[in-house]
Amino acid sequence: MRNYIGLIHKDADSDFGVSFPDFPGLVTAGINLDDARHMAEEALALHVEGLLEDGEAIPEPSTLDAVMADPDNRDAVAILVSLKAQSRKSVRVNITFPEEVLTEIDRYAEAHGLTRSGFLAKAAQDAIKAKENVRAA
User: Where do the HicB-like antitoxin of toxin-antitoxin system domain residues begin and end (predicted)?
Assistant: First the structure.
């Protein structure tokens, strides 16, 4: 299991954002710190899974000293985000949505640092967990 540094950013009127210096462009957010950490783990796993599917190399984790040496990172709080071993095989599926729903999905996913597939997978998992929690109550 590798650990990557995530940087938590928080503006007064925003959620807790998380970026990854080793993966430029990969960002996610959470409504509180616990949610941000959870979203960071999911976003990192999905991003790395996509890189592997595309045959791209996974970078070695940067050191905390190297990340914090960048002046742009000094206002953030550094956390370790674990990249758990991917034991699941991804399967490509073909599904159909109304165009406006797909547009909303893509807009939401992009705003939260997820791919379309990552968002749909998370939404499905959340719905299943919610149903299981109702049954258990």
Answer: 4-124
